[in-house]
């Protein structure tokens, strides 16, 4: 079996089946797929699965795949690393029962889009796939799993991780002794998902907007991961329901909160204030001193002029705190 990561649109990907989660509400790709199928006359919306259930749906030529497998999972706020691992395992297990001869499965990465650590979410999803393979519950005809992602930057980062995880830079998993192969070469996946919640994490308070993406991925996430922490943030626009509860839970358990005060975003100030109230250590920074409001002007704040400078400042700060 081969695992590959490709840049593209999940709605157009060519495969035998596209696997999607249904977190008891529609988000992103699953919402777009349901809209297309409903417009074509399918009644898929009324048949979406509850947590623990799966539903295989014909796509009627509306997608690049002939079928979509919806995997019912818990609501998004509770859909953490362990649930991501279980989702991936259950997807292959369900296909082994309904489409045992399936050759090519496509799916997307879950977690980073609403704030979980990108690397840990990716490892958790891979671990779930390998759980199914090792337990011999994957489809017998499976030859290829494609993880499709629209962001070129994320494709590069995930490919680097995949190459590092698999031997000699290969993305192929072959042979009859797959269990032994995985046990010897993929040890970093053993704790992904299963013990992720116990790992130390940093909560990043910053605007969740495209213009901040490079700052997060290259100035912050890399420094935080290199220091040994998971790196999380919250996209308040993605969630439905009680978003603040999720934010509080992640700040309560964080080893540290780091906050970008650029643009004086009110949500960022709210998260900083909550961290102070809970006596969670904070690191504050901004690209422009004029963005700082009176609430924080008496606090130590790192100022940076470039993403590289931000990474260097944060790396030193985290090293000192460690």
Strand content: 15-25%
Mean pLDDT: 87
Uncertain regions spanning at least 5 consecutive residues: 175-181
Name the overall outline: globular
The tally of strands reads 11
Instruction: Give the helix tally.
Output: 9
Number of domains: 2
Distance between the termini: 41 Å
**For the record, what is the CATH homologous superfamily label of the largest domain?**
Leucine Aminopeptidase, subunit E, domain 1
Q: Enumerate the strands of the largest sheet in spatial order, edge to edge or round the barrel.
A: 1-6-5-2-4-3
Per CATH, the architecture of the largest domain is: 3-Layer(aba) Sandwich
The secondary structure category is alpha/beta
For the record, the CATH class of the largest domain is: Alpha Beta
Helix content: 25-40%
In CATH, the topology of the largest domain is named Leucine Aminopeptidase, subunit E, domain 1
Rounded Rg: 21 Å
Strand/helix succession: EEHEEHEHEHHEHEHEHEEH
Structural features, described:
- With 322 residues, the protein is α/β, with parallel strands linked by helices.
- It folds into two domains: 188 residues, Leucine Aminopeptidase, subunit E, domain 1 (3-Layer(aba) Sandwich), CATH 3.40.220.10; 122 residues, Rossmann fold, CATH 3.40.50.
- 37% of the residues lie in helices and 17% in strands.
- The protein is built from nine helices and eleven strands.
- The strands form two sheets. It has a six-stranded mixed beta sheet with strand order 1-6-5-2-4-3.
- Strand 5, helix 3 and strand 6 form a beta-alpha-beta unit.
- Helix 2 runs parallel beside helix 3 and helix 6 packs parallel to helix 9.
- The longest helix is centred in the N-terminal third of the chain and has 18 residues.
- It is globular, with a radius of gyration of 21 Å.
